Amino acid sequence: MIPKTMSTQHPDNVYIPFFAREPQLGGEDEIIEAFYAFSVLGIEEQMWDFEGKEVDEFVVKKLLERYPHFFRKHKLGEDFRLTPRVPNPSVEKAEAKLLLETLESISRSADYSKIFYGKEIAPIFEVILPMTTSANEINRVYDLYKRYIVGKQYKRVYDVKLYEWIGKFFPEEINVIPLFETKDAILNSAEILREYLHGKDFEYQRVFLARSDPAMNYGLISAVVYDKYALFKLQELEEEESVSIYPIIGVGSAPFRGHLVPENVENVLEEYRGAQTFTIQSSFKYDNPPREVIKAVEKIKSSKRKEAEPINGQILLILRKYEIEYSKQIKALAKLVREVAKFVPSRRKRKLHIGLFGYARDVNGFALPRAIKFTASLYSLGVPPEVLGLNALSEKDVEVISNVYNGIYKDLSLAFRYFNPKSAEKFKFLRDILKMSQLFEFERNEEHCEITNKILDGEINEELIIKAASIRGFLG
């Protein structure tokens, strides 16, 4: 059974989860979080993020040891999944060897599982490869595990073969889930996957389409259209290759990052027809009453995957002028965003992505914070990132786009509630965006405006940022 819901470890929540011992969640907290997601919320899969975070590599052992009653009834690897997100050596040079360590831990986790269940059940049998841009990258991870992690067991160590000494390696192969994050990778995801599937006899293939980083890089509207275009092309590939393809959409709480909140579940399911699995991020889980969260998760799980909407490639031409304008505006705001981002609280103990041992997340050549801090910073300035670049489009353009991006009016109306007109005094281009707001129905949130007024006047601090986030119902 392919999961409908995947719990992620992205720190986009306003409030500290009840089980956390301090504001920043560490490895031990995330063990509890995984169990909470499985046992209380009914989320079917937990992404375990080795890419960019300090996480516990003994998660399987600890889950089985601490919660034996639950996991004897609900098998890890069958009823629930744990799926690592591994470093991509093509991008993360300093973390490259962590890929080897993560893959090595898969068979070790299977040993714990065999002792616990008394039979071979692989608790981990898939990995997510971020920033995938080619079939070669996926093949390398697949081949690395099959030939060098598992394959080495038949090598002789002095007087015995390795498996005779330390035991057999299981599972014999793993599935690799490519995570496509750039424009080119998303638009060409079907062709990349076609090349990877060639010559393989898989029962199914999962594929992960990013939503937050594309929005940062190309703007909200482009991010939605590109993902929907990819869903349609992946559906065509599924029919042509006669192999089941199950897309994952990485949605967050803010409209900029997907607008997946309990009250908007049905709209998101309809928007991303063709997607099989939806990510449930921290804000969804912890900034809403548990009953609402459980009900919303059940709604996603009980939904049936629909056919993806056909997307005419001509619409991509409209987006060119929008992306150019969006990029100019982000460049103008970048310095202020970086300044505010310093005061946005972190909820996870995360490795540096910019610095001596990190890789830079940049937009068209200039460094910016990660998506959650980026979104939170702009909202804190009274400039919702959803509205940036909008002035490059005509009213007719917006109407045409609405035929593809069904929720554009709803999402932008919500965003404009938090647009502070005072921000237009600092940046001229925001005046044109303010004029565009007339196309949308909304009532400005004055309480949010009062807080962002202080931040715009230079009173930047964590308390004000959290107050504003509490009004919105999400940090970023």
Number of helices: 20
Helix content percent band: 40-55%
CATH architecture descriptor text of the largest domain:
Alpha-Beta Barrel
Count up the domains: 2
- At the fold tier of CATH, the topology name of the largest domain is TIM Barrel
> Got a strand count?
12
Q: Which strand order spans the largest sheet, edge to edge or round the barrel? A: 3-2-1-10-9-8-7-4
Mean pLDDT equals 92
Instruction: Please describe the biggest sheet, giving its number of strands, its sense, and whether it closes into a barrel.
Output: 8 strands, parallel
Q: By CATH's scheme, which homologous superfamily of the largest domain applies?
A: Phosphoenolpyruvate-binding domains
Task: Please write the CATH class name of the largest domain.
Answer: Alpha Beta
Poorly predicted regions: 351-360
The percent range for strand residues is 5-15%
Q: Could you tell me the radius of gyration in angstroms?
A: 23 Å
Distance between the ends: 32 Å
Shape: globular
Structural class by sheet pairing and helices: alpha/beta
GO molecular function: magnesium ion binding; phosphoenolpyruvate carboxylase activity
Function: Catalyzes the irreversible beta-carboxylation of phosphoenolpyruvate (PEP) to form oxaloacetate (OAA), a four-carbon dicarboxylic acid source for the tricarboxylic acid cycle.
Catalytic activity: oxaloacetate + phosphate = phosphoenolpyruvate + hydrogencarbonate
Pfam family, one: PEPcase_2
